[in-house]
Amino acid sequence: MGVSTANRRDCAGRARSAGSFVVVLGVLAAAFAVTAYVVPRSARGPVAKEDPPVAPAAVRAVRHSVVYELLGEHGARNVTYAAAGSALTQQAEVATPWSARFTRVGPAGRSEFYSVAARNPGPGALRCRIVVDGVVVAEKTETEPDRLFSCAV
Known about the structure:
Oligomer: single chain
Largest sheet: 4 strands, antiparallel
Strand order of the largest sheet: 4-1-6-7
Low-confidence stretches: none
Helix content: 10-25%
Shape: rod-shaped
Order of helices and strands: HHEEEEEEEE
Number of helices: 2
């Protein structure tokens, strides 16, 4: 007698199931191998301890005594200067001698900007000076009437 046709179908179905199972196992093994190769070591295991971050060093603040001066015979017009906190201050007209004093606080080692500008009403000379911590850091004289000029550092 021969093998029944019903048994042949069962064997063929089992063979296809076993073949599919082997293919799925192969795909899973390949995916695992690729993942193990691609994923960095730190993601696969415990991370080595690192030194704690260092806090930035505190910046030392310094104080500067600043004096702006205008010296001349006929006053000055359109006076503009950078004062404490770098705020611009303006005055339409001032009598000379004129001065503005303030203290500026800033980080040690940083360059500061100082500026005073004015218009010479003339005739005669108008001189500007910037004095920081007792030292003249800028000085300029304008003799031409109605001329705008400045001292800046």
